[in-house]
Design goal:
By secondary structure, this protein is an alpha/beta fold. The chain is built from 16 helices and 17 strands. Helix 6 crosses helix 7, helix 7 runs parallel beside helix 8 and helix 13 packs across helix 14. The chain binds N-(iminomethyl)-L-glutamic acid and fe (iii) ion.
Length: 432
Amino acid sequence: MSERKTADQRSSALLLNIGLLLTLHSVAKDSRPRRGSDLRELGVIHDGAVFCLGGKIVSVGSTKDALRDPWIKKRRKQITEIDCTGKVVIPGFVDSHTHPVFVRPRLVDFEKRIEGATYEQIAAAGGGIRSSLEGVRNAAKAALKAKVSNVLRDMAAHGTTTVEAKSGYGLTLESELKSLEALRDAASAWPGTVVSTLLGAHVVPKEFQGCSQKYVEIVCKEMIPQAAKRNLARFVDVFCDKGAFTPEETGQIFDSAMKHGLQVRAHMGQLSETALTQFLRFNPASFDHMDHVSDDDVKQLAKLDTVATFVPGANYFLGLKKYPDARRFIDAGVPVALATDYNPGTSPTMSMPMAMSLACTQMKMSPPEAISAATINGAWALRIADRKGSIEPGKDADLAVFDVQDYREIPYWYGANRCCMTILNGVVATRS
Ligand code: NIG
Ligand code: FE
């Protein structure tokens, strides 16, 4: 993907003749994440137009109206026009769960699983997350930054304009801060938006095995305070599951996060069920994975704004037969999001369309539900829906242009990339 960095590129762009424009504009009670039938409201405009100025969306409507607008008419020559005839334009994807700070793919784990080993067996035998630590601990910050930058570019090529990105493959104070700094540096060189998360509680590193409490103390008393003080993270995440952190440890870590002004989110119910109500007092932005969740907890979540984020790429790549029961959540009124979970162990994909395709075919989400979950509800899962996730005047100019006639083709053409242009905070990036 090449970014057009002419001086006026961020200042103005007029997308015209858009075959199908999905605005995802606010539905009535839209000061909360979308749930139930609201997930199907895409705000469709035929022959649409979007005008962006200074990185923001200024107007959204029909091509006819845009061309009649006196302000636009007067300045037409200075405005960059983008002809979107026969294309679909949607809000840029908000990928609200990724782990991009690692060095090498985990090909041994991949082959072991093909031969029949499970994720837990591989982790117990020294593979899994622990086998990614050495690479990050030994890497220079600039090398990590370069890795992250490449991923962000690939994500943008697939239509993603906002990325939540976690540390979590260093698991020492120094290497977690280095990971967060690499994220910050890569983010500042990318026109899109990165929301950083400290995942010091990804797994207990082997030097603390048998004394996990000591490691939790480091997370609570060193990593969280430093990350907060240096403004390196907005969220704290915990992998709360068997083989990772207990609910008690998760509570301690959330306490520390709150104390230091960071918001919380967690990997929950990936391998086993954990009662969720004990964490609600921390007002988590999102619980992610959610393969194993009780009916009672689903009922509780339906009353709240904590988003259930599904990451079906992980189920696919681990070769699981079962996927999260999205229908149970949606039909109960739980707000749901979709994310890639980009990481070297369980989900090495940067493609939101792929995550959507899996959600449709394996989890029986409808294409409109998948689009809402990958855009506006991803923004809710990061608590930035006031500026991301829909195409509305005043929001950030984050758009994805697809070379398809019908929005349902986005999850339909799985494994192919039909995104031909992405606009990130007003900067136009085209696929070369
Ligand atoms: O979301 N489950 C915890 N974290 C990642 C996997 C990380 C890894 O295996 O490297 C996940 O699936
Ligand atoms: Fe994850």
